[in-house]
Specification:
Aminopeptidase; seven-stranded mixed beta sheet; alpha+beta; about 150 residues
């Protein structure tokens, strides 16, 4: 099972890659999680897109971007059939490394779905603040400090 990681700016994505990314995000965030919201936003244009390909097909994805005070990792998604293969950890480690190499050793902030608290904690993220609802799903802000 050959794994390839690709990090690309929005303009560097092919039409097919963009379609597959949006298809995966919709499949998981809208259909599987039964959450109606506007997934496509202007952050896609300014983000770096981290794509994990398994046998030449997108199996996991994140996007990373920078704000004035931190790096951010968002839209973390793994295809349902690949969730037992540690691909989530692999793409998150690659995303952390990409944040550091592109934006420097500044903190990384994520908006984590609460049920994934243990997963992100094992990667070195620490929760901060109160639990909040985002699109009807419980979330907590987490921070990774280098």
């Amino acid at each position: 099972m050959p794994i390839e990681i690709k990090v690309a700016r929005f303009q560097e994505l092919s039409n097919i890659e963009l379609y597959q990314i949006l298809q995966l995000r919709t499949e998981v965030f809208v259909v599987e999680q039964d959450c109606v919201y506007q997934d496509m936003d202007d952050k896609d244009f300014e983000s770096l897109h981290v794509v994990l390909l398994l046998d030449n097909s997108i199996a996991a994805y994140t996007r990373i971007y920078e704000s004035s005070k931190a790096s951010h990792i968002g839209r973390v998604v793994v295809k349902r059939e690949n969730r037992k293969n540690d691909l989530g950890k692999l793409i998150m480690k690659e995303s952390i490394d990409s944040c550091e190499s592109v934006y420097g050793s500044q903190d990384i902030i994520i908006s984590a779905q609460l049920y994934l608290l243990k997963f992100y904690s094992e990667l070195g993220f620490k929760s901060e603040g109160d639990i909040y609802l985002e699109d009807g799903i419980k979330h907590i802000q987490m921070r990774y400090v280098f």
